[in-house]
Every structure is written in structure tokens, then in C-alpha cells.
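Q: Predict the bound structure with 2-acetamido-2-deoxy-beta-D-glucopyranose.
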Amino acid sequence: MKTALIGTIALGLLPGAIASPGGFNPDNVVFAQRALPDAPDGYVPTSVSCPASRPTIRSAAKLSSNETSWLKTRREKALTSLKDFFGHVKVGDYDVVSYLDKHSSNISNVPNIGIAVSGGGYRALMNGAGAIKAYDSRTYNASTSGHLGGLLQSATYLSGLSGGSWLLGSIYINNFTTIDKLQTHKDGDVWQFGNSIIEGPDTGGIQILDSASYFKDLAEAVESKKKAGFDTSLTDIWGRALAYQMFNASNGGLSYTWSSIADTTEFKDGNYPMPMVVADGRNPGELVVGSNSTVYEFNPWEFGTFDPTIFGFVPLKYLGSRFEAGSLPNNESCISGYDSAGFVIGTSSTLFNQFLLQINTTSLPNFVKNVFTSILEKLDRADDDIAAYEPNPFYHYNNHSSPYARQTALDVVDGGEDGQNVPLHPLIQPERHVDVIFAIDSSADTDYYWPNGTSLVATYERSLNNTGIGNGTAFPAIPDVNTFVNLGLNTRPTFFGCDSSNISGPAPLVVYVPNAPYSFHSNVSTFQLSTEDKERDNIILNGYEVATMANSTLDGNWTSCVGCAILSRSFERTGTTLPDICNTCFDRYCWNGTLNATTPANYNPTTYLAEADSAGSALVPTMLSAAVAAGVALFTLV
Ligand SMILES: *[C@@H]1O[C@H](CO)[C@@H](O)[C@H](O)[C@H]1NC(C)=O
Ligand SMILES: *[C@@H]1O[C@H](CO)[C@@H](O)[C@H](O)[C@H]1NC(C)=O
Ligand SMILES: *[C@@H]1O[C@H](CO)[C@@H](O)[C@H](O)[C@H]1NC(C)=O
Ligand SMILES: *[C@@H]1O[C@H](CO)[C@@H](O)[C@H](O)[C@H]1NC(C)=O
Ligand SMILES: *[C@@H]1O[C@H](CO)[C@@H](O)[C@H](O)[C@H]1NC(C)=O
Ligand SMILES: *[C@@H]1O[C@H](CO)[C@@H](O)[C@H](O)[C@H]1NC(C)=O
Ligand SMILES: *[C@@H]1O[C@H](CO)[C@@H](O)[C@H](O)[C@H]1NC(C)=O
Ligand SMILES: *[C@@H]1O[C@H](CO)[C@@H](O)[C@H](O)[C@H]1NC(C)=O
Ligand SMILES: *[C@@H]1O[C@H](CO)[C@@H](O)[C@H](O)[C@H]1NC(C)=O
Ligand SMILES: *[C@@H]1O[C@H](CO)[C@@H](O)[C@H](O)[C@H]1NC(C)=O
Ligand SMILES: *[C@@H]1O[C@H](CO)[C@@H](O)[C@H](O)[C@H]1NC(C)=O
Ligand SMILES: CC(=O)N[C@H]1CO[C@H](CO)[C@@H](O)[C@@H]1O
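A: Predicted complex:
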């Protein structure tokens, strides 16, 4: 366990650890097991020797051979977990485990599960974390009656964008760690949001880095990338800052790449779902990111898109190499290290680059502000709200059909900017054959920062352009946002697409899981910069209750209904009749086509359960007014 030892030694030198009386204390042992620090030269993309067959861009007509072969292992392991899940989740008297055994010889027949975690800054990270904690069999008590532990282990895919991508990064770059561990101060001190990301990490009493050194560290990494000849922007600084908060508080995980996830033993062995981070492409010559913008995914092997505007993927490890017309010319070297994990989640969340520009409103000393201002002067400020991917890996690729083929740089932006704030795009690709998607929506659509279905409407409308940008994707019908609010579809989980014969093509059933106030008002502003541990934990617990309907206290049949949603498409394929209880469930949770498009009154729900503690209720009005001020200021900058 070399990694563990290195982590222990490095963090053991912290003043806090030294000061602890009584010498060695096992509670201070830090298990900093992570993905792999395999970038050749820290943050600087660097030329490496090419593999025997030189990397190329491949067509998006099929899944990659990497994904296809990984799925063989993963689907079997997920099936084992699904049987465990149905050990405690009962669907009436029906013997689900025997059903799964009976059909296990053809894995295409058993349920294929995806989970999607929306954007929405730290609110989305924390509410999403609550859902993931509820779905994780490793969470204490989660695999008992009324809970949903094991759903995470049964899933094939897990997607995230913007704030949701910070959650994915926190989990995957830290060796598929648990939410519990991310919440403690024992396991590497990530997720300490009490210090705002502008101040830098605070680990255990004495801040390890003072804010000035923190900014100098951020700047040095980005300047060295620039010196090596790569375009840099505010996104690089932002991504480095995120890496301190999400990966490794002591040195910001400088050398960790997203592609290294594919090289870890645990992932290769198919022990957990495949992570996918979503970002949007700004169309050439356009400033507004509309619903027809290109949607990219970063999976562990590749970066690219199924959209007809590019319809290709580049090996993620060699992003930054000068591809031309789909191949790497002989005189070009292979570049590695461009896909810094911080840069990937920074790209998915470019909307928040602007956080950094608020430094003058903090109480940090002036010399720190000056350090940062001097960093800004060296950046191309025109690129403040985008990540510039230069060289464009899709240069001269699909020349006849791609509007990007003549661009030397790709403008990549926040994954939620096209309105699809839940990252469903990778999960509705027909080649992936996903049966059911758990869509965790922490969007701030309404005046009080609750979701109202806007994101699902965007995905639905995009899919209607089936021969254009939708490119063969299908999606269940989704009503207008007024109907969402009038019918309360955003106050509790709702199923869409229960009747597959009503959809234009094969499409998953969507279990929509909207953020709602169970024990805590989790509707904190998207632009809230810091969150004390207590509030963080309240939001995570609330998210747990959102996913489990308060541990099934709001509906004693809720976990059975989740079981029905999981099994529905599989039962159709195998011509099996769903157990009776599923009819009760579908009557209750499926949107049945009813519309009410009257403009509703302002949506401002009160907590469903007793409020978590006094901090909660008192906090809301102050947070809202502060948030409105910050939000307005930021949106005028964006
Ligand atoms: C990652 O976590 C797994 C499961 O807890 C553990 O067996 C493995 O040793 C860890 N890997 C590393 C590199 O620490
Ligand atoms: C992905 O597949 C390609 C082609 O089969 C192979 O060369 C490459 O090593 C694989 N990548 C990983 C990370 O396994
Ligand atoms: C496996 O199941 C799929 C989906 O129902 C079906 O299309 C395919 O023909 C089956 N394969 C075999 C070998 O039976
Ligand atoms: C996207 O839509 C806008 C307006 O709806 C249109 O002007 C633009 O040409 C479209 N871009 C592409 C690449 O289809
Ligand atoms: C902070 O304020 C100073 C003095 O007004 C100004 O020169 C500087 O550009 C500001 N920095 C940022 C990041 O806005
Ligand atoms: C729903 O959210 C959108 C923004 O995302 C907003 O424009 C609209 O007014 C909201 N409508 C309702 C009924 O909440
Ligand atoms: C459908 O997509 C195509 C290509 O992306 C675009 O040109 C067209 O305007 C879109 N149509 C609608 C109705 O949005
Ligand atoms: C739900 O379960 C969690 C974890 O077991 C527990 O902390 C929480 O108090 C429970 N909430 C309710 C409303 O029962
Ligand atoms: C659960 O569903 C069963 C079967 O439809 C029904 O008889 C029972 O009343 C339901 N229980 C609750 C708590 O809703
Ligand atoms: C459909 O759902 C609405 C409430 O959402 C309910 O009032 C109506 O009775 C349902 N219709 C049918 C046919 O079940
Ligand atoms: C539609 O929703 C409004 C609330 O906005 C409600 O007052 C009205 O009764 C609803 N109409 C029907 C037909 O249910
Ligand atoms: C199903 C479908 O329409 N697929 C199309 C997606 O876009 C590529 C590139 O334009 C086409 O070749 C596919 O036919």
C-alpha cells in the first residue's frame, strides 16, 4: 500500500498532526488512495512516445472497443449487485432474483441502469451526493428495508455535469471513495467547503497553504502550460482550484488525469460504473449556447460526441496532440497530460470561472488580490467564460459535415448552458441501450432555486429533431414547466416514459428525482461560495431523503416502485408480466399525459419533515438575499 504511506507521510507533516499529543494516533492516518498521477510533467501537456498503433479519431457510429469490452465484465458484476439489491428491495411477492437468474445467460435482457447528476454548483454537488450516498451499498444502514443501497453498484453508467462533475471527480479520482469518507476530516481532507474556493484549502486548524501561495501555485501550473505553447484561460485556473477542493487538499492533485481512471485496477475489473462528464460546445461564430449546441462527453477513454456536428471521439490520453483529418501526421508527436482531471471538471463548469473574479469582494489581504490580478493580466480575458481546446482534435475531421472542421480551437463550455442541466445525453444514445435513468435534478429553475423540469423539457425538445442534432436519439414525452409545477411533478419523484409504445424509438424510462425540502431547505444559491460542515451535512442528508422518500416514510412502497422502474423495460423484452404492485406504482408515479399549462403561483415549498435544526430555517432568507445579489452580479458578467 505505497499510496497510503505516501499520503500518511505527506499529511503527517502538517502542523496539526505534529501538535497532537501522544505521538502516533491511528485517527490521523490518511488514506489518500486515488486514481493515477500519470501526467508526464504535472500540469504541462508533454510529448511522449506514441503507442505502437498511432492514436486516431474514430467514428461515433458504434461504442469504442474499450467500452464494449469493459461492458462484458461490468454488466456481469452489476448483475450480481442487482441481485443483492433485490435481496432487500421487495417487489410484492415476486421473486426478482429468480427472474434475473433465469435471464442472466443473455445479459442484454437484464436491466441496464444509468444515473445522471445535474449541475447547480455546490448545491448540486451536495444534493447529488445525498442521492449517491443513498444508492451506495457501502453506506451504513443503506441496504435495509426502505432504503436503496446497491443501486449505485448495480448501475452501468454515472454521468455528471458542472457541479455534478465535481461530485464525479471527487468520487472517481479518489479511488471510488464513499460520500461518508468525503465528509470526514480523516480521509484526506477533501470536501472542506468552510473555506471558500477563493481562499484555498484549510486542513485541520492551520491552513496548509496561505492564500497567496495558493494563488501562486495555481498560476505557476497554468503559466507552465502556456510556456509550453498551449492556449490557457480562466478555466485552467478554475480547474486547478477545484482540484484542491475535490481531489487533494495538500497539493491539488497536480498530475492526476481523467484518462488514468481507465488504468486503475478497480475500474478495469468492472467494479463500479463508468463515469461520464458532460460539457457543451459553442458553435463557431456564435456567442449564445443554444439547444442545438454540440454535447461532449469525457469518459475514461475518450473525449468526443455522438452529435452529427462532429460524430467522433479522440483518445483522451492523447488530447492535445495535433490531429488532422482524423489521424496524427507522422511529423507530430503524441501529447499526454492535457486531460488534467481538474481541467476536465473545470471545463464542465466554466459558468463558475467567474467565482474567481470576485476576489476583490473577499476579506483577503490586498497583496493576495494583487497576486491574482497579475495572473489575470497574463490571460486572454476574451476567453473568460470558455475553455479553449487548442489544437482542435477534430480539425479537418468530417470536413463535409462538421462546422468545427475548419476551427483550429474548440470552444468548450459549461455542460448546463444548453438548458440540459441533467446530463442525459450520454445515457440516451441508442448504442448504449440504457433501460432506466435516475435523473437527479438540483437545478435552480424557480425564483427560490428549485427545479421545475426545464432541463427535461430541453432534452425532450432536442430529441424531437431526430434527423438533425438529435441524431437518432429518442426521449419520453415531457410536459411544459407550468404543468410540472401545477401537478407537483417537481415535488416528488416522477416517472416518464412508462409506456414505451408511446415513444418514437427505444428510450429509457426516466425516474426524475427533483431536489425538494425534506428535512432541510437545500435550495442554497448556485453561487454560494462556502458552506460550513453542518450545513453541508444537512443538505447531503436531505438529498438522501429525496432519493429514498424519507427512507420510505412518505410511501411505504417507494422502494418497490423503484424496483418496478428498473425492471420495466427488461420485462418487456422478455415478455414477462409485471407484478400487480407495479400497476399501483405506475398509477402513482408515472406522468399520465395530463396537462395544466396555467401559470402557477410562485413555487415556495415548506419542509416535508421536521426541519433539521435551527441553523436551517434561519439561514434561508439571508442566504437568498445574498444569493440573489451574487447571482445577478455574476450573470451580468457571464
Ligand atoms: C481502491 O479501493 C479498493 C476498494 O476499497 C481497494 O481494494 C484498493 O486497494 C484501492 N486502490 C488503491 C490504489 O489504493
Ligand atoms: C482502448 O482500446 C484501444 C484499441 O483497442 C487500445 O489500443 C487501448 O489501449 C485501449 N485503452 C485502454 C486505456 O485500455
Ligand atoms: C439476447 O437478448 C436480446 C434482447 O432481447 C436479443 O435481441 C438477442 O437476440 C438475444 N441473444 C441471444 C443469443 O439470444
Ligand atoms: C442553432 O440555432 C440557431 C437559432 O436557433 C441558428 O441560428 C444556428 O444556425 C443553429 N446552429 C447550428 C449549427 O445548427
Ligand atoms: C481588484 O481591484 C483592483 C483595484 O481596484 C483592480 O485593479 C483589480 O483589477 C481588481 N481585480 C479583480 C480580479 O477584479
Ligand atoms: C421554470 O424555470 C424557468 C427557468 O429555468 C423559468 O423561466 C420559469 O419561469 C419557471 N416556471 C415555473 C412555472 O416555475
Ligand atoms: C434540426 O437540426 C438541424 C441540424 O442540426 C438544424 O439545421 C435545424 O434547424 C434543426 N431544426 C429544428 C426544428 O430545430
Ligand atoms: C433516513 O436514514 C438516514 C440514514 O440511515 C438517517 O440518518 C435519517 O435520519 C433517516 N431519515 C428519516 C426521515 O427517517
Ligand atoms: C403498497 O402496495 C400494495 C399493493 O398495491 C397496497 O396493497 C398497499 O396498500 C400499499 N402500501 C402502501 C403503504 O401504500
Ligand atoms: C392523471 O393524473 C392526474 C393528476 O396528475 C389525475 O388527476 C388524473 O385522474 C389521472 N388520470 C388518469 C386517467 O389516471
Ligand atoms: C391548474 O393549476 C392551477 C394552479 O396554477 C389550479 O388553480 C387549477 O385548478 C388547475 N386546473 C385544473 C383543471 O386542475
Ligand atoms: C441515426 C442517425 O441519424 N445517425 C446519424 C448521426 O450523424 C452521423 C454524422 O452526420 C450520420 O452519419 C448518422 O447516420
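A: Residues 308, 311, 401, 471-472 surround 2-acetamido-2-deoxy-beta-D-glucopyranose (ligand 12) (CB under 6 Å).
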